[in-house]
Amino acid sequence: MDKLVIEGGRRLEGEVRISGAKNAALPILCAALLTREPLTLTNLPDLNDIRTMLGLLAQMGVKVEHAGNAVTLDAAGLDTPVAPYELVKTMRAAILVLGPLTARCGEARVSLPGGCAIGARPVDQHIKGLQAMGGEVAVEHGYIHARVARLKGARLFTDMVTVTGTENLMMAACLADGETVIENAAREPEVVDLAQCLNAMGARISGAGTDVVRIQGVERLHGATHRIMPDRIETGTFLCAAAVTGGKVRLTGTSTGLLDALVDKLMDAGCEITGEKSPSHEAILIEAPRRLKAVSIRTAPYPAFPTDMQAQFMAVNTVAEGTAVIRETIFENRFMHAVELIRLGADIKIDGNTAFVTGVERLQGATVMATDLRASASLVIAGLVAEGETHVERIYHLDRGYEHIENKLTALGAVIRRVKA
Ligand code: UD1
């Protein structure tokens, strides 16, 4: 297995381009299943999760044509509405084919995702929503089997805010008979990006970005071209990397409006952050002080502080002045990076879903192990400020969600290299 070797202590400086958002691209790729006409997507990130999703769609009979960071999907020949266990177990987002397949084919067989390192993560809300729309949904032999002649519009209420749940039901409702209203919907920008793509395909969705989304079902959707939004979690990760090294970095192709909660916290920590916006480009400039102040956070659904930035922000706090309290409210087991950060010399105490992080003067390089995608990013951030060499093992997690991270960091002056297994 590949690993990253980082020599800490370099201040990050320069410019980095932010890629398209993984979590917007994954549902939008699935939206191609809803139509017989080609869907072209641009600004697609080059990531393992994207390749996995494209492989899954191809296996179902979708034609996939790549040209640089654009892809055209043609689902006219869709003939196998099945997502097998082997794929779903490596990438939970494969559950996003359930809604579109049921709506378009009247049938879907999708493996249950099972648990993952950060928690149990059930998909009961996805199933409950399809049932409320008239779908016959059974869980048999580890697979969700959905059948229906045509889904019917319905009033749906999810028990908790679920991002992929909202996306799955929104896609299913596009081809349903009548109006669907999703209450308690996720307000994440990726939900909005998906709705914009679906509307460009002829869907009639309003309210995306609020907690009530209305979808007027249509008979069919058509082809379209859509640009994937910038990755706000990659943006946030680079902001944290710049902050922790006392750096000065310009992030292009992204905007501060996508992550106000994190920007506020980094400013509280002492960073100066400004957004640049013109019709032709968007960028963020961050300038960090020599030492940051500790800042407490509590994760919650958008627009609050994202759980996908909690690990990276914990890494920032490990070397800040003072003590920060970090509360994780979305996933029950999302502090696995803490024990690895402690191996680098961090002072962290965990009590249930709360971590108390007292900043130390400096971390020391060591060998650490990545346990999930965002945990891996937090170890890289810590490695950038640790004294000496940090070896981050099991970086296949990182390759699922960060495009060429070591090249981008190298361009900013970090000393980081990939060692092939
Ligand atoms: C999405 C993101 C992930 C992010 C998460 C929370 C994608 C591809 N992934 O994951 O990066 O960390 O949102 O912002 O967009 N839940 C249930 N039953 C359900 C659905 C969810 O109990 O049917 C629970 C989950 O276990 C979790 C919470 O609801 O505790 C939120 O999960 P959810 O928003 O669904 O996460 P994902 O959509 O899987």
Radius of gyration over all CA atoms, rounded:
21 Å
Main sheet attributes: strand count, strand direction, barrel closure:
4 strands, mixed
- Low-pLDDT residue intervals, each spanning 5 or more residues: none
The unique ligands bound to this protein are: uridine-diphosphate-N-acetylglucosamine
Measured as a percent range, the helix fraction is 25-40%
In short:
The protein is of the alpha/beta class and 421 residues long.
Task: Annotate the secondary structure layout.
Elements: E1 3-7, E2 13-17, H1 22-31, E3 39-42, H2 48-59, E4 63-67, E5 70-74, E6 82-83, H3 85-88, H4 98-105, E7 107-111, H5 124-132, E8 136-140, E9 143-147, E10 155-157, H6 163-174, E11 179-183, H7 189-200, E12 204-206, E13 212-216, E14 224-227, H8 232-244, E15 248-252, H9 260-268, E16 272-277, E17 282-287, E18 297-298, H10 310-317, E19 323-327, H11 336-343, E20 347-351, E21 354-358, E22 367-369, H12 373-385, E23 389-393, H13 396-401, H14 405-411, E24 415-419
Parallel strand pairs: 2-15, 3-14, 6-7, 10-11, 18-19, 22-23
Antiparallel strand pairs: 1-23, 1-24, 3-5, 4-5, 7-9, 8-9, 11-13, 12-13, 15-17, 16-17, 19-21, 20-21
The structure holds uridine-diphosphate-N-acetylglucosamine (UD1).
Uridine-diphosphate-N-acetylglucosamine binds next to helix 1, helix 5 and helix 6.
